[in-house]
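Hey, weird one. I pasted the Short-chain dehydrogenase sequence into the form twice and got a warning about non-standard characters only the second time. First submission, copied straight from the form history:
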Amino acid sequence: MYRVIIVTGSASGVGYELAKLLYGQGGNIYIAARSSEKVNRAIESIKASVPSSKGHLAPLILDLADFPTIKNAVDGFLQKENRLDVLVHNAGLMTPPAGSKSKLGYDLEMATNCMGPFILNHLLEPILTRTAHAESTPDNVRVVWVSSMIAAFVPPGGIQFDEKSGSPKVLANTMHNYMQSKVGNVFLASEAAKRLGGDGVISMSVNPGLMKTELQRHMPRVQSIIMGILFKPPLFGAYSELFAALSPEVKAEHNGGFVVPWGRFGDIPDHIEEGLKPRAEGGTGTADQFWNWCERETKPYV
């Protein structure tokens, strides 16, 4: 079946491996990343790796931490395509130097991992829902939010908010700060499921697994070497994301769910699960609070 798929961060790492798998099956894949040079290099490499593919590869140049570039990229995409079957929010940033900010002054991890994908998702919602309405087979239009191993190194409740500003805090513990942005992906997937599920769009969050990729490029060299020995190669993470994106096992009843390595349904820790529920249902309402914060802060760019 002809499918149009966007994979962010697919010029390298897990996203690259996922794009290669999808292209091998004849998909129309958009390689989304910041650098046109890296994107073009990835496209040529994928084509050389799968010479028999009947698929298509195209660049989509955007910087998730530089919000105005996202709308420009989406406008270009919409001029070329009249459908979008799968959107994979794969791109991410992990533990950059302390105090790193986006061009607009936001914490760089929160901007890259959550706010930019939120904008991209919002701008592509109309074409996602149109595609779902046109599909004769249900449950095929998907949005995949790539999270992490949220059972550890996560602050209580998933995201810590500043009471005065109403914004997520920038946490002193670098791993906690990264992990709260990854819980943010779980929250956004759950809230997107509530908002778009009625239109036939399924949203899933994914722990792709422990792998050695460019994501750890900011870590100390010794730690990076150990990860290279113990962790899996990026292809394994692509299997986890592929399950969420295309598996026929994913049905409407799984909307908003969580996928774990290397492609199966998993559980969300209780203190994060509480955040997925509104206060009226006995939860903390943190997911809704985070969605509303993202919506408020990104409104000028959608």
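That's the output from the first submission. The warning seems to come from a hidden character in my clipboard, not from the data itself. The beta strands are 4-8, 28-33, 56-61, 86-89, 141-146, 201-206, 258-260, 264-266.
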